[in-house]
Amino acid sequence: MLPLSLLRAAAGSPLLVELKDGTTYNGRLGTCDAWMNMNLTDVICTSATGERFWKLPSCYIRGSAIKYLRLSDAALDKAVEDEKEQAQRSPAGRGGGRGRGRFDNSAGRGGRGRGRSGLSTGRGTGAGRGRTAAGRGRSGGRGPATQTSSS
Amino acid sequence: MASTLKEWKDKTICVVTCDGRIIIGKLIGHDQVQNLILNEAHERIYSEDTDVEEMPLGLYLVRGDNLCVVGEFDAAKMDDTIRVPEPLPHIYQQQM
Amino acid sequence: MSTSTEKTTHRKESILELAKMMDTVVQVKCLGGRELKGTLKGYDDLVNLVLEDCIEYIRDAETQMPTDRSRKLGLAVIRGTQVSLVAPQEGAEEIANPFVAAEDDE
Fold first, then answer.
1. What start and end residues bound the annotated signal peptide (chain B) (predicted)?
2. What whole-number distance in Å separates Cα of residue C2 and Cα of residue A70?
3. Burial class (CB within 10 angstroms; exposed 0-12, middle 13-18, buried 19+) of A81
4. What angle do CA C29, C30, C35 make, to 5 degrees?
5. Is residue C6 domain-resident?
6. By C-alpha distance, which of C85, C13, C102 is closest to C49?
7. ipTM, 2 decimals?
8. What is the CATH architecture of A3-73?
9. Which of A44, A46, A38, A34 lies closest to A11, judged by CA?
10. Are A71 and B36 within 8 A, CB to CB?
11. Chain A residues with CB inside 8 Å of B62's CB?
12. Going residue by residue through chain B (96 aa), what tens digit of pLDDT does each one get?
């Protein structure tokens, strides 16, 4: 399991974040992104010394400022479930990175774009794997490439 | 010996973080930037005057930036009576 | 493409919260330890921020902890790379240790 898929599954559940400066933030996870940036709600902030406390209705935390996170066990269960669901929906699983195909060359963008948006539905965690040369090659060889040559 | 974290998947590992904490837990996931998911994690706290204390942490996600050392963990080889030595005095104190 | 779409949607979701904070007073923590407060007048995808009537909390020389003393910066642009935390000022308050009760239960 990838740490970020776990984090995504933890949306809505309680979470403790310690930042690099030692302050901790206890709250409910709202949204998070691929950089581990996140929004928390109903936050209790504790100073690095553990002596002072603040209540914040919400806050935005930058991923790079995080030292570690503590999650609820329920989040793990949810992540395992999500992973299973994902595997069922796209058995190939590795199709992920076709999305990067647009970096191959600059021609035929429109056609390929359309092709991809069709392919991309229903897979999430595989994203980004296509950075490899193989992934790119595949993307070029797909239907949209023929469109490129015809255009 | 393991050359990649993959080989330690689902094994109990020991992590030393940049801030000097020692965290033990089962590695259930990691990514390219060495963010780790540790399940049933606990921190081992060494101190000068008491035996090693274990602080349960539950499900833990350590950011890769904050990792220092990752190692295999063998509970049988642990000695809970180890104490942390007193820190060395400042150099200017020794000179006086 | 879908990867980037996915990222932007995530990013949009995150940023959405910043949209909610527009023209309200926000507290900003920076990576070096500075803490700022000001009215959020603008931001971009990189979380560069524009703060109006911005103040910086002066830090204690020894502990490096921000104190209640502050200095005025006025209109300021905070570079996104240095931002570690953004939180609205409204509803934020210092409270007594909320974890004491929980610790007693254990």
1. none
2. 30
3. exposed
4. 45
5. no
6. C85
7. 0.81
8. Roll (2.30)
9. A38
10. no
11. 67-68
12. 556 888 889 999 999 999 999 999 999 999 999 999 999 999 999 998 888 999 999 999 999 999 999 998 988 888 888 888 888 888 876 555
